[in-house]
Fold this protein.
Amino acid sequence: MAKQTKKAKALAQTLGDAQKLYGVDDAIRTLKEISSTKFDETLEIALNLGVDPRHADQMVRGMVTLPSGTGKDVKVAVFARGDKADAALAAGADKVGAEDLLEDMQAGNVDYGRVIATPDMMGIVGRLGKLLGPKGLMPNPKLGTVTPNVAEAVKAAKGGQIEFRVEKAGIIHGGIGKLSFPDEALKANFDAFVDAIVKARPAGAKGKYLRKVSVSSSMGPGLKIDVAQVHGG
């Protein structure tokens, strides 16, 4: 009971000062302290950037590998034939195919976190544009999901590589691990994510690029991070 009282007290203090700026380590500790859910919450990050993604030269999109992983099992589908298909299966792909995979997805089976394709399969994959596009699953050479090296792409997807993409309001959201991870593992993932966003600064970005950063847990409050302490801030 005392533990719950401590959490309630911590939560009250946190919510009582909505303008407080946290260091990353302090924010992670605080979210862990006030978490009272029975499931393992995801640590989520949100970055407000000084960009307008309606302009092509201000789009921010790419991939980042989280060194501590995501804590999630990512389901991966691969469009490939022959040796490439065998390599994808050996690397841990959940589903591999060509026309048969196309038909399976058209039947509504698109419960995947990543779809990868060899370049020669894009004629088939293109027919799934309306299905995969809105889900953000369409294979893309710039993101490394259209590649002859499907085995490496599968291992990356399974090993903690996630996609980031700026939304209309200039915000990027991402899940960067589970609250059960050690503090230093979450901090490493935070640093890697922010570093990738900073390196992806587009040519058209003017003025201050990294404007606001906050972290939250799945069910917890958002805590504002002191941008001055963040790499690239």
Remarks:
- The longest strand covers residues 42-49.
